[in-house]
Amino acid sequence: MNTPELPQVHIKPLTLSDPWRWLQAGWNDFIRTPMIGLAHGLAVTAFGFLLLTVGYNEFWLLAGAFTGFLAVAPVVAVGLYAVSQALERGQPATFHLVFRTWWSWRGKPHHDWRLVCFGLLLCLSGTGWVLTSAAFITLLSPEPINQPMDFLRYVVLARDNNVFELWWFLGVVLAAPVFASSVVTLPLLLDRQVSIMDAVLVSWKVVVQNPFPMALWAFLIASISGLGLLALAGSVIIVPVLGHASWHAYRDAVGAEHLPPRVRSQS
User: What DSSP character marks residue 192?
Assistant: First the structure.
């Protein structure tokens, strides 16, 4: 059932093979525009190294910061959505396009602010998880968690207190509504003139009407991102591929062609 505000939006049926196809499409877009993708990946990786360097002895806080990246990842990928959109339309996909996408909120159309507002909401949710994770680890860990090896020894490998299992379960419970609220929201806001509330409702409808494909997509995002975070340098490739793939997930899941396109600032 469609929302009254968006009678021209329909949710497309998905299959379990679609998430794998999105990854392939994301890889193809990355290969076509490698420098733009690498720039995004390098920026994320450099920030990760900076966090690790500055907060190495406060890993009780960093554990939530690294895992909380998944909440704000859609914001980082906005430029990649624009690149995939341009490639899809046969338009030039350049760094200028990425910069213009990031700065389009300065334009007069009020809907340009919606990208910024929703991005701030995701940042708040990520911050909330960082604080929740830090409090959880501090309260339940039998020993202070200062360095990565402390986290591995007293949280991940500890079998007498189930701290890691509880921490992981809490993360999944809190991440599920964030995923449902954001999986196609930013691509939709980038693509069409639509309110934040309506975009979030569409995102939820995609998840509710396609629970198994979207559960697989969430698992793939978390697993692949986790591998990238473990190696950290792997994020150089993983970030752009998942960013491009998320655009294709939106295009396959949401039919919004009849909604007015988003007008962007040309500066």
Answer: B
Q: Parse the chain into domains and list their residue ranges.
A: 15-255
Residues with Cβ within 8 Å of 171's Cβ and at least 6 positions away in sequence, in order, are 67, 129, 133
9: its two tokens: 């939006």
CB atoms within 10 A of CB 197: 11
Please check whether residue 264 is in contact with residue 101, taking contact to mean a CB–CB distance below 8 angstroms: yes
Identify the H or E element spanning 209: helix 196-209
Both tokens assigned to 205: 């409808």
Structure tokens at 117: 């507002």
CB atoms inside a 10 Å sphere around CB 79: 22
What's the Cα-to-Cα distance from 224 to each of 95, 214, 217, 229, 231, rounded to whole Å?
Answer: 26, 15, 10, 9, 11
Residues 104, 106, 111, 114, Cα dihedral to 10°? 80
Nearest to 6 by CA among 192, 180, 157, 172: 192
C-alpha–C-alpha distance, residues 184 and 238, integer Å = 19
**Distance separating alpha carbons of residues 202 and 220, to the nearest angstrom:** 21
Residue by residue, pLDDT tens for the chain (267 residues) are 444 455 578 899 999 999 999 999 999 999 999 999 999 999 999 988 888 887 777 877 778 888 888 888 888 899 999 999 999 999 999 999 998 888 766 555 554 678 888 988 998 998 899 889 889 888 888 888 888 888 888 888 877 778 888 998 999 999 999 999 999 999 999 999 888 999 999 999 999 999 999 999 999 999 998 888 777 778 899 999 999 999 999 999 999 887 878 766 554
